[in-house]
Design a protein that fits this description.
The protein has 376 residues and is mainly alpha-helical. It has 2 domains: 94 residues, no CATH class; 257 residues, no CATH class. 74% of the residues lie in helices and 5% in strands. The strands form 2 sheets. Strands 1-2-4 form a 3-stranded mixed beta sheet, with no helix packed on it. The chain has a two-stranded parallel sheet with strand order 3-5. Strand 1 and strand 2 form a beta hairpin. Helix 8 packs parallel to helix 12, helix 9 runs antiparallel to helix 10 and helix 12 packs across helix 15. The radius of gyration is 37 Å and the shape is elongated. It starts with 5 loop residues before the first strand and ends with a helix. The model has no long low-confidence stretch (mean pLDDT 84).
Amino acid sequence: MPSEWIARHDQTVSLIGEWTLANYCHIKASLIHSKTQTELGKATDITVSLEAITRLDTAGAILIVELIGVEKAQAVAEWAAELPKEQQALLIRIAEAMEAPLDVDPPSYSRISQALASVGQKMVGLWSQQRQLLAFIGLVMATIFHLALRPRHWRLTATVAHIQQSGLNAVPIVALLTFMVGAVVAFLGATVLQDFGATIYTIDLVAFSFLREFGVLLAAILLAGRTASAFTAQIGAMKSNEEIDALQAQGLDPIELLVLPRVMAMLISLPMLAFVGMLSGLAGGAMVTSLSLDISLTQFMATLQKDVSVTHFLVGLSKAPVFAFVIAVIGCLEGFKVSGSAQSVGEHTTSSVVQSIFMVILIDALAALFFMEMGW
């Protein structure tokens, strides 16, 4: 049974040559063809000699362990003392690894445990996300304070360009949406109040809802979907193209160059858009009351002036800068998180929109509770 790697003399099987990965397929085929492994498995009086092996690696050691068995391979130092110590240690290590069971069943968990684990993972991710947001807000605030007394470093051109993109270009969609929502609110209010003979209070309903809540909230949600996603996509594309690394290599601060103009633009744009939304919502309500309730525009304005104080307008407008800052910061932060692929850009763009809308509604709810407790 002579071959390039196996030699048989009476009751002795000698392994010859280089038992390495390069020869793995040939050695395996030779073992199967010569039926050496089967003979060693059945016979107990056959001696195996490893003295003629010139090179041995992990692949060859696996073949030898399969050939002679795990127990004999672990005792290789007793019957193959001529084998170098390194090769003996390799055979013993491979035998120990092959002795462990490979078909270990994974631990099974109940559906309740899996649900709780999933909730825990989500909470850990949310906590990490909020920590990153707070850290980024601190970094932005520190940069703003640092540049407050250094007008030379203000990016006025970039700020004006972002005001046009995020503010001026959003006026039509904000005005149209708030106008239609104002009309819907007035129509629903008129339908309900008509049963009580109090249709005149539809004017107060529209005024209170848009001056305090809907005007600024709808504008903020629109900008969260329209502008925060744009900020994330723009900065994410720069991150994937390594443009941000290039800016840092030139000694430029990405926060100062990319984030602050967007934040300042949002701080200027959102209050103006909220004002536009308030006026458009009132105009939609005035149209419905004029057509459905026979309330003239003059009566609408007189009732508005008599029943609604300027405090409601100031309360609604005071929330606009907070919403603007949160939306801009989240949009920019998610852009910096982009890893470099197109899929990552899409995922973080979606995340920025979801986070922005969630934070806007959360802050609005907290503000409503605060103003209610203050009696404003």
